[in-house]
Amino acid sequence: MSSRGNFSSKIGFIAAASGSAVGLGNIWRFPFEVANGGGAAFLIIYINFCFLLCLPLMITEIAIGRKTQRDASSAFAHLGFPKWSILGKMGILASIIGLSLYYVIAAWSFGYFLEMLIGNFSIGAQFNDYIKDVIKIGFYGLIFLSITAFIVSKGISGGVEKASKILMPALLVLLIFIACYALTLPNAFQGISFYLVPDFSEIKLPIIYTALGQAFFSLSLGMAIHITFGSFVSKNDNILSSASAITLTDVGVAFLAGIMIFPIVAYQSSGVIEGVNGGPGLIFQTLPSVFESLGPWMGVLIGSCFFLLLTFAALTSAVSLLEVPVTYLVDQHKVRRNLAVILMTIFIFLLGIPSLIGNGYSSFFTNFIQYGSEGTPTDFLTFLIHTNDVIMLSGGFLISIFGAYKWGKSNLNNEIAVGNPAYKGSKAEKLIKLMISYFCPIVLGLILILTILDRYFGITLV
Q1: What is the number of domains present in the chain?
Q2: Is the pLDDT of residue 293 over 80?
Q3: Is residue 56 one of the residues assigned to a domain?
Q4: Is residue 462 in a domain?
Q5: pLDDT digits 0-9 by tens, 369-422
Q6: Do the domain assignments include residue 180?
Q7: Any idea what the CATH number is for the domain that residue 420 is in?
Q8: Which domain holds residue 333?
Q9: Stated pTM of the model
Q10: HEC states along the chain?
Q11: What is the share, in percent, of the chain residues with pLDDT greater than 70?
Q12: How many Cα atoms sit within 13 Å of 345 on the Cβ side?
């Protein structure tokens, strides 16, 4: 298996895996989940779930990959459980679907970066028309996918690792720069106060449910990414410390995104945070006018940096998402890496076309499906997001079952101890056993059921 290549360093692995976790969800979804969840209380719950629920799952995925040195599908057969290969295939499918969505949104972001460079702040008011321009958005998406494909074609150490070592620091520099400037805006203190001063009376069951989901999805679990990257990790590496560093990086970027966004929102809304809508509406429609209000030069600088930041965040995740099916084709079907990259890039571009045209250009894909007789029609992109959420949650739930009860806690912990002899008999070993055996499967099983009921049947129990 040596011909597959490996990460050249622990830092390279952490940068690449962190890049997979750090994505658009950290920049636009997390801050507004915080806003809708009551502020700092949500933040505290989210951080706890990242380490108590998500970290043990990530460690399990990395351990499976490193133990087998195989792609996500054949890893389970190599461990002696061929029927569980379906779990790896689910993860590969989730990565393919995820990238078909990502490149469309990344195309919006890249296009906005170009618009900000020329000072076209009015693009925010034209957003609905902008995303209907399928030729322009499709061209930007093709550029984004081509860059992603070029990086992945260079292999693990020469492509994925090298790009991550450049993109992740660049992303952090942009994020810190914009956050520092945001803190100088009027009403910035109100935004930071809402974000960092907890009101524990806000903690309710729906907020806990949302925080758990945000933690799970933000760390790219259930997508076979960590199994795939784990297969390129040296036996000398400490899985526990690497996974902890990845989790800390992801949480840190999300935290900094809040430091960046909440002062901007407080500035835009005269200090009012609650009830502010987030996601694409605020990012692509509201923020351009905020950047315009900063003045011609500062508006161009901050606006272009912001959308370049979003594009970089999308790119770090896209590289990881493409690597998963490429590794599968290379390992399982002996396809040359360059050919595998080309085939998967073409397939993913075509798969993303319904999402591309389902934002007003095509009536069929804009009103693709309706859940229940009274529900409003859902566009194809949103339908795929819901579907992928269910696949990922199912994958995370089954990974915890596999790690604890099929492969077994003793085998799992033996692999974690490779490169970290002090792990055996430690408090960390006892905690991971407890989390992976009971907490992870119970909580994820419950969340999976609640998500299916909510997304497909409109039944909200929390």
Answers
A1: 1
A2: yes
A3: yes
A4: no
A5: 887 666 788 999 999 999 999 999 999 999 999 999 999 999 999 999 999 999
A6: yes
A7: 1.10.4160
A8: 2-457
A9: 0.94
A10: CHHHCCCCCHHHHHHHHHHHHCCHHHHHHHHHHHHHCCCHHHHHHHHHHHHHHHHHHHHHHHHHHHHHCCCHHHHHHHCCCHHHHHHHHHHHHHHHHHHHHHHHHHHHHHHHHHHHHCCCHHHHHHHHHHCCCHHHHHHHHHHHHHHHHHHHHCCHHHHHHHHHHHHHHHHHHHHHHHHHHHCCCCCHHHHHHHHHCCCHHHCCHHHHHHHHHHHHHHCCCCCCHHHHHHCCCCCCCCHHHHHHHHHHHHHHHHHHHHHHHHHHHHHHCCCCCCCCCCCHHHHHHHHHHHHHHCCHHHHHHHHHHHHHHHHHHHHHHHHHHHHHHHHHHHHHHCCCHHHHHHHHHHHHHHHHHHHHHCCCCCHHHHCCECCCCCCCCECHHHHHHHHHHHHHHHHHHHHHHHHHHHCCHHHHHHHHHCCCHHHCCCHHHHHHHHHHHHHHHHHHHHHHHHHHHHHHHCCCCC
A11: 97
A12: 21
pLDDT single digits (tens) 307-321: 999 999 999 999 999
The pLDDT tens digits of the residues spanning 65-112 come to: 999 999 999 999 999 999 999 999 999 999 999 999 999 999 999 999
**159 residue type, one letter:** G
Instruction: Give 378's strand partners.
Output: 369
